[in-house]
Amino acid sequence: MPEPGTHRQLSHPGTASLPLLRPGVLLDRDGTIIVDYGYVGSVERVELIPGAAEAIASFNAAGIPVAVVTNQAGVARGYYGVADVEAVHEHLKGLLAAYGAYVDMFLYCPYHPEGAVQAFARHSDDRKPAPGMAKAAAQALGLDLSSSWVVGDRPEDMALAQAIGATAAWVGHGPCPWPGALAFPSLAAAAPHILRSLTAETDVG
């Protein structure tokens, strides 16, 4: 089990009262919401990808829970600390709020088996593509993972979607390397398709 308090940030009031078994959207962070400059561990390096905030706001407006699930091996490697990850997320919350957007829950995995910091140098069921963070989001937000979406720019995001039975949306550069994933140039481009899919499911349900 992950150590409590190290990687989960329930960030939007009232999310715990969401109905059970709702579809949600699980978003990678770097390369999906913010520009991936490599080990983004300070607020000065946080830059929203154009259209990402508006995409998240569209999910919010439709009542679709949004969680960020991000590997943060920079902690294990000693590039920055847990407090820095959480500071980046607090800063990102402010940037999103300017667009009327919010993330219901931030989850991150600070562990890596080849880490230089002993406390974080281990395998973890939270590290994507393992499903630990997705399962934690499902428990906290009442999500049906099999009807949810995972959006990201790396193979481990696509493998996470496969592991939990979710639909995968690839927003990486170049051709999608994962069979069965839907490819889009950005989160902004993927959002309308995801919305149509999830709102149709809700109407049917």
Short description:
This protein is of the alpha/beta class.
Q: Which short descriptors sum up this protein?
A:
seven-stranded mixed sheet; 6 helices; 33% helix; 205 residues; Rossmann fold; alpha/beta
Give the strand content.
5-15%
First-last Cα distance: 33 Å
CATH class bucket: Alpha Beta
Instruction: Say how many strands there are.
Output: 7
| Mean pLDDT across residues | 91
CATH architecture tag: 3-Layer(aba) Sandwich
* Coarse structural class: alpha/beta
- The helix content is 25-40%
Overall description:
The protein is α/β, with parallel strands linked by helices. It has one domain (21-100, 115-172, 183-204): HAD superfamily/HAD-like (Rossmann fold, 3-Layer(aba) Sandwich). It has six helices and seven strands. The chain has a seven-stranded mixed sheet with strand order 1-4-3-2-5-6-7, with helices on both faces. Helix 5 links the parallel strand 5 and strand 6. Helix 1 packs parallel to helix 6 (187-204). The chain starts with 7 loop residues before the first strand and ends with a helix.
Topology record:
Elements: E1 8-10, E2 25-27, H1 52-61, E3 66-71, H2 73-76, H3 82-97, E4 105-109, H4 132-141, E5 149-152, H5 155-164, E6 167-170, E7 182-183, H6 187-204
Parallel strand pairs: 2-3, 2-5, 3-4, 5-6, 6-7
Antiparallel strand pairs: 1-4
Helix pairs in contact: 1-6
